[in-house]
Fold these 3 entries.
Entry 1:
Amino acid sequence: MMAYEQFAYTYDRLMADMPYDSWVAWLEQSCHKADLKPRTIADLGCGTGTIAIPLAQQGYKVYGVDLSEDMLAVAQDKSQGLSLPVKGSVTWLQGDLRDWVLPEAVDVAISFCDCLNYILDEEGIIGAFRSAYEGLAKGGLFLFDVHTPQLLQKYAAEQPYVLDDEEIAYTWTCELDEEKMTIQHQLSIFVEESNGLYRRTDEEHVQRAYALNWLTEELRKAGFSDIQVTADFTAFAPCATTSRAFFSAQKK
């Protein structure tokens, strides 16, 4: 697992077009479908809090868990001084998705924006599933999405990627290991500073994609039931063109 380091401070600008509202909507739809009215939510791999904070503003008691101190520092800054509903709150905690513990069992655990793809070994995934099961209250939901193997192949085939905006730019290259289904992302990010010069930050990110049927089986082994897998924010089953697979699993 890697920390985001200086990347945390430009993360929100680079991710501004991500469909955060769609993730929140999918969470709400999944809870409605399961006839669950959650009060507490764990956001695993919460990053800078772009999902955790709106959930707290809706009145949920949220725990934002992330491995990166820098990401949590940005999240803390963003949440400082917010006016929250009486029942709404957000607590930031440094922790590992593979082995986390909260002060209380939660109704829902979420891990969105392909966080689990950053776990590079099968034992780590198994640990994450076990931690999620143990951290949920009875009847709770574990909701997450992952990049599919075909998306990693697409990334590798279509790279390099370039962004050239007025205040921020990057070059992004990828190298795919087909056998291990891991992809190494190399980013050079240039951010304009107040003196008109650009600060360069170099980042390396590695992700791994797992077979969806293997993930389903490991969820079952961890104790989950009513496991559902859908594609790309829809109610349809994944297919050969699916980029993100969405998992819903319940602790009975």
Entry 2:
Amino acid sequence: MDAAKILSELSFKAVRSSGAGGQNVNKVASKVVLSFDLHNSQSLSDDEKALLSEKLKTKFTLQGFLILNCDEDRSQLKNKEIVTKRFLKLIQNALIIPKKRKPTKIPRSVIEKRIKAKRNTSEIKQNRKKPEL
């Protein structure tokens, strides 16, 4: 994955934000909407595209677009930086392939300890019975 290539494929749109800011909210478009087209991306291989579409299927639209919003700051530039970092982190985390888990063998001492405990409880229960005459 080449971050510089992917960043060139992103499209940004500035929208009027809601929330704090007073009258500034009504005048300035500080909210940033990032959109990324997965199917038409040349910076990702087919395997990476398949992995992303599988891991992030809830975040993609039906047309294959990933849309992220940011209106945390009053500055449009800071919102653009925040949403870009969020996007890159999301993509990098989704492209990580987890290691396969190797099942461990149960140690012999653990098995013997369990059998010994079972034998002990069995003897305790046997001793509760009335003696046969």
Entry 3:
Amino acid sequence: MRAWRISKASRAADLSGIGAAIEGGRWNDADVPAVYLGLSPAICCLETFVHQTRRPQIPMKITVLELPDDAALYFEPAQADLPALWAAQPADRPSMAYGTAWLTRNEQLGLILPSAVLPIERNLMLNPRHPAMSAVQVIEILDFEYDQRMFFVRP
């Protein structure tokens, strides 16, 4: 399975989950490591773009990862089984508790979730503490820039 992530250049190959543990994320509490990926490069772009207030001034990278193809390593809950306000802005406590509980159980490598930006797209949260994490491979790290038109102010 292929997955992608966009990050600061300095963290492009870092799969420790420390970045997400610093403040927590939509699906993890602070101090709980997690690695957030997209199942397409386009959703990675949208997911990171919504957090920008201006064109990034630091170098960005898009990392291509190869993950084990064993379906037993992944869990994809039905959207109806997710907490009611899972897509709230900012992320709400129930979604963070849901993902943290999944990470703590350490049963699967990846949790496949809908994107809060575009729910028909899917994201993947990896558990860096799962034994199968050693099989995750960084395939390629490419330079990344948002298209300049994304930052145009339109009348």
